[in-house]
Amino acid sequence: MDITEYRRIIRPLLGDYRFHHSVCVSEAACELARQYGADEDKAQLAGILHDIMKDIPHDEQLGRMREYGVTLTEVELHAPKLWHAMLGAAYLHRVLGISDPEVLDAVRYHTTGRAHMTLMDKIIFTADFISADRTYSGVKQFRKMAKESLEKVMHAELAYTIESLAKDGVPIHPDTLAAYNECSLEMI
Ligand code: DGI
Ligand code: FE
Ligand code: FE
Ligand code: FE
């Protein structure tokens, strides 16, 4: 199946804004893949699919996770914004029959990051931050950094994520902290 067919599959699952965002992430991922020497088609694919379960109501997300055997830790249970990434990867595998671990992992970890991120993980995580539809203050700085170094931009994005979460007083997933610590140690 190619990217056009996957676009057709996600269209009814997503609202207009989220569909547009997914197309933008797909384009940003393709560009990053070209720059950093990853498979462009795969990056485009993971990008278009990364938020596939984002617009499903939270109670339905929980139900589907139960159905697909996705179990949640205490932190995950109290962080509904993380569910679409975990569920998304399970859906791609179980319903769409996608088996490529690079694609599945990039979707699974696009919100938290993790220790030992693959090149594709980093590309999708960063594409999600700098896609053309993003307008938050600071996005221009991240776009500039992404052109200079994937390591540098990952470190800055994770610091930004952790800072925002701490400001809001919400739990921080261990994978987010592990990703941040690993980046920090590499920067020293
Ligand atoms: O799905 P998107 O909006 O495109 O972006 P995303 O999947 O990166 O989700 C971003 C949201 O996820 C943002 O509101 C912060 C939240 N998030 C990221 N890491 C963590 C987290 N929330 C909690 N509670 N803990 C985390 O570690
Ligand atoms: Fe997401
Ligand atoms: Fe993100
Ligand atoms: Fe996204």
Question: How would you describe what is shown here?
Answer:
- The protein is 68% helix and 0% strand.
- Helix 2 (16-36) packs across helix 8, helix 4 (58-67) crosses helix 6 (83-94) and helix 10 (150-168) packs across helix 11.
- It has one domain: Hypothetical protein af1432, CATH 1.10.3210.
- The chain is built from eleven helices and no strands.
- The structure holds 2'-deoxyguanosine-5'-diphosphate and fe (iii) ion (3 copies).
- 2'-deoxyguanosine-5'-diphosphate (DGI) binds next to helix 10.
- Residues 50-51, 54, 84-85, 110-111 line the site of one fe (iii) ion.
Number of domains: 1
Q: Compute the average pLDDT.
A: 97
| Count of individual helical segments | 11
Please state the CA-atom Rg, rounded to the nearest Å: 16 Å
> Ligands bound here?
2'-deoxyguanosine-5'-diphosphate, fe (iii) ion
Task: Report the helical percentage.
Answer: 55-70%
| Largest sheet geometry | none
Structural class: mainly alpha
Spell out the CATH superfamily. Hypothetical protein af1432
Summarize the structure in short.
The protein is mainly α and 188 residues long.
Which secondary structure elements does this structure contain, and how are they paired or packed?
Elements: H1 3-10, H2 16-36, H3 40-49, H4 58-67, H5 74-77, H6 83-94, H7 101-108, H8 119-130, H9 139-148, H10 150-168, H11 174-187
Helix pairs in contact: 1-3, 2-3, 2-8, 3-7, 3-8, 4-6, 6-7, 7-8, 8-10, 9-10, 10-11
The structure holds 2'-deoxyguanosine-5'-diphosphate (DGI) and fe (iii) ion (3 copies).
One fe (iii) ion binds at residues 21, 25, 50-51, 128.
